[in-house]
Amino acid sequence: MSVAPAAPSPLTRVLVVGSRGASAERTSTLAEAQHDAVVVGVCQSAESAMRMIRDLLPDVAIVDADLPGGVGMRIVRQIMHEQPLPVVMTTAAGPAQGGLAREAREAGAALLVALPRSTAPLPWPDLARAVRTMAGLKVVRRRERASEPVRPRTPVRGDVGLVVIGSSTGGPQALKVVFGLLPREFPVPIAVVQHMTRGFLDGMVSWLRTGRTIDVRVASQGEQLRPGTAYFAPDDVQMAVARDGLVVLRSDPPEAGLRPAVEYLFRSTASMWGRHAVGVLLTGMGSDGAVGLKAMRDEGAVTIVQDEASSVVFGMGAQAIKLRAAQRVLPLDDIAPVLRGLVAGARAEGRS
């Protein structure tokens, strides 16, 4: 019996913005390195980018973050305001350039990728992988936050001792909003898994510390979690929080290719904290954390998902809703007020 060959996957259409000459050619080669993408246009200005997005319908834009005078960031802001689509920014500065990563996030870029040296062998897969990952993501037009969002009424629970949060694409900006609306004296600790390109976590944590907010840091093995502090899982380890509030970091295998994985944190929280925890799943692609959030709900924990309208990418949250893992689906601005209400009766030293 003959079998018809599988239809070829459609090529990801890429627009390269800001690169010229040899640089544009090299970026195009890197983007197409896995043979599943095609560069449909190259331009150097925001005006040209807007026109090409309308005419060529690219799936992803690659924007040079190293353009002088912040031109690349302005181009990204205009794209996200007028013709939103997934944006990958590139830089030759490397992960040590924390300020650049912060600017890229604030402008609306989904990823910042460090390009290899000009002598590096090709094909170099990281940019191609980023382009493939970003293709087809739902993004939303950047908008101003309401000055006085509606605050939902929330019942008080005095037995909450831990909040766990998972996020991916768009997560840094969402976390900035949530942390900024929590008081410094927030009475319980927060543990977070945020999907990040390796090497950029420290820069993101430094950015999240700016302004009057709770303390934010990268977690260390055996560290005692303190109230009013958010602890991020470090690169390339799985993180859990023991019943006594100590950080547990392990080199357990990746889950669905992810380490750290939201799934690991949520599942372990369900097992060790039960109803004494709150789980929050923010914007992000894929399904990481959905099953773990369901396990938390089954154990009596409060579970929250960021709604579609305020999410950059409604992937992880949508999967959690399908599994009936979410007790509450909330706009981003409402999540912190709900958390404040849930822990209002908690003692500062931890779980009641």
Model description:
The protein folds into two domains: 12-134, Response regulator (Rossmann fold), CATH 3.40.50.2300; 162-342, Methylesterase CheB, C-terminal domain (Rossmann fold), CATH 3.40.50. The radius of gyration is 21 Å and the shape is elongated. The longest helix has 12 residues, at 71-82. Helix 4 crosses helix 7 (201-209) and helix 9 (290-298) packs across helix 10. The strands form three sheets. A seven-stranded parallel β-sheet has the order 8-9-7-6-12-13-14, with helices on both faces. It has a five-stranded parallel β-sheet with strand order 2-1-3-4-5, with helices on both faces. Residues 1-8, 119-124, 143-157 and 348-352 have low confidence and may be disordered. The chain has 352 residues and is α/β, with parallel strands linked by helices. The protein is built from eleven helices and 14 strands. Helix 9 (290-298) links the parallel strand 12 and strand 13. Helix content is 32%, strand content 19%.
State mean pLDDT (0 to 100 scale).
82
Over all CA atoms, what is the radius of gyration? 21 Å
Q: Helical segment tally?
A: 11
CATH C-level of the largest domain? Alpha Beta
Strand order of the largest sheet: 8-9-7-6-12-13-14
**Topology-level CATH name of the largest domain:** Rossmann fold
Q: Number of folding domains?
A: 2
Overall 3D form:
elongated
Helix content: 25-40%
What's the total count of β strands?
14
The unreliable regions are 1-8, 119-124, 143-157, 348-352
Biggest pleated sheet: 7 strands, parallel
